[in-house]
Amino acid sequence: MIAWTNLRWLWLSAAVASADLGLKRVMEKMLAEASMEVLPVFSLALGYNRGISFGMLADLGGWQRWPLIILALAIAMGLAVWLARQPVSGETASKSALALVIGGAMGNAVDRMAFGHVTDFIQLHWGGWAWPTFNFADVAISLGAILLVASSSRRESA
User: Fold this and answer.
1) How far is 71 from 60, CA to CA, in rounded Å?
2) Beta strand pairing status for 42-49 and 118-126?
3) Sign of CA dihedral 123, 125, 131, 136
4) pLDDT of amino acid 84
5) Would you call 138 a catalytic residue per the annotation?
6) pLDDT tens column, 83-96
């Protein structure tokens, strides 16, 4: 059964997508000349990703842009249906998790629609090792996924 009141959680999705898109534009201006080390293990470094996670599919000549946009929108719509089907009371962790993932997916989809790539700016590194750059939307998606798994595990063990 669909609980339309659960869709009020989409305010969190809109906030995540808006923050992500705003941060991307600010970081593009701020990092246009050079990267910025914030901590010994954390820098702000501008990057553009035409592919998916870790740059996979980035070197396919650009045809992947629209299929990736359609995939992100389909996932966001499916998660919104899942959100709407959650019980009206309780399940706060699951609802916020779904909203975080939806918001992150929408932030990256809008970026890809507007510019043909996703703008990344967060860089984690240690010594000679560096994690691929990522963005606020990726953080929201990851946190949402972790929260969703944790809340599901908690329900199963109860």
Assistant:
1) 17
2) antiparallel
3) negative
4) 93
5) yes
6) 999 988 878 999 99
Q: Which residues contact 100 (CB under 8 A, 6 or more apart)?
A: 12, 13, 16, 140, 141, 143, 144, 147
DSSP string over 78-118: HHHHHHHTS-SSS-HHHHHHHHHHHHHHHHHHHHHHHHSSE
**Helices (DSSP H) in the chain: which residue ranges?**
10-30, 65-84, 92-115, 136-157
CA 64, CA 44: separation in Å to the nearest integer? 27
Banded model confidence at residue 47, pLDDT cuts 50, 70, 90: very high
pLDDT tens for each residue of 147-156: 999 988 776 6
Options 20, 59, 111, 138, the catalytic residue: 138
Two tokens at 99?
């909203």
Catalytic residue among 20, 59, 111, 120: 120
Q: CA 114 to CA 75: how far, in whole Å?
A: 19
Which residues touch 25 (CB under 8 Å, ≥6 apart)?
A: none
Is residue 59 part of the annotated active site? The answer reads: no
- pTM for the whole structure: 0.89
